[in-house]
Amino acid sequence: MAIKNIVMSSGLAPEFWIPGFVEIEEMRQTDNRGWYDFSILYDDTKLHGIHRVEFEISLPDPSDTSTGLTPLGKVHDFTGTSFYVYYRTEPIPPQWTGTHTRVVTAKLGWTPIDIYIPGFVRVDKMRQIDEWGTVELYIRMDLSKKDQIHHLQVSAKSDEPDLTAGTVELGIVHEPGRYRYATYTSEILSAT
After folding, report:
1. Which of 7, 15, 6 is nearest to 137 (CA)?
2. Which residues contact 135 (CB under 8 A, 6 or more apart)?
3. What is the pLDDT of residues 89-128, one digit of tens each?
4. Residues 170, 191: contact at Cβ < 8 Å?
5. How many Å apart are CA 125 and CA 192, to the nearest integer?
6. What is the distance between the alpha carbons of residues 185 and 192, in angstroms, rounded to a whole number?
7. Closest of 69, 75, 3, 92 to residue 37, by C-alpha
8. CA-to-CA distance for 89 and 41, rounded, in angstroms?
9. Which end of the chain has fewer CB atoms < 10 Å from its terminal CB, N or C?
10. Taking the complete model, does pTM exceed 0.85, yes or no?
């Protein structure tokens, strides 16, 4: 078993599909608008086993541990309100096949965001949802090819189109007083 670590950035209450998921080692709040880095451990010898990781937020600290939730920690928003963040996991059933669309919320910036997608087909569209570079990515997956794990790097780091071979343009991300071109690249990590 070779345990490896990835960092994924996301907004509050996201859902990840992680190949070879072991555990979330750490959550780090990166701003006061609900963005976090998640340090995720995965086993690269078990990439065929995909887990859906869901997050829940609670105002009070729930004392009932029978819910199957694993605590991650306490976070604060811009109003000073504290929340507790928890996660639960469940394996994706092996009989799940066919094409599915998954929506990933991400804040695009200069540093690429890493997304790991089983059976990646394409990013169908990008939709901006706030004025600070937060977008929804509509990602098409073919779960009959879920053993093929793709590593996407998504970023919005230039006000010029990126014409590098292998780079796919998603559109323009608008922020106050500027705009940037959003792009992604895709690389197959495994085909077991």
Report:
1. 15
2. 105, 106, 107, 108, 126, 127, 128, 129, 173, 182
3. 888 776 666 788 888 877 787 777 888 888 899 999 999 9
4. no
5. 28
6. 21
7. 75
8. 13
9. N
10. no
What region does 45 belong to: left with phi over 0, alpha with psi -120 to 50, or beta?
A: alpha
**HSE-up of 70 (CA within 13 Å, CB side)?**
12
| Segment 23-54, tens digit of pLDDT | 888 888 877 766 777 788 888 777 777 788 88
Measured CA to CA, the distance from residue 13 to residue 88 in angstroms comes to: 12
**How far are the Cα atoms of 44, 47, 51, 52, 100 from residue 191, in angstroms, in the given order?**
12, 9, 17, 20, 19
Rounded to whole angstroms, the Cα distance separating 179 from 108 reads 12
134-137's contacts with Cβ under 8 Å and 24+ in sequence apart are 134/11, 134/105, 134/106, 134/107, 134/108, 135/105, 135/106, 135/107, 135/108, 135/173, 135/182, 136/103, 136/104, 136/105, 137/103, 137/104, 137/105, 137/106, 137/170
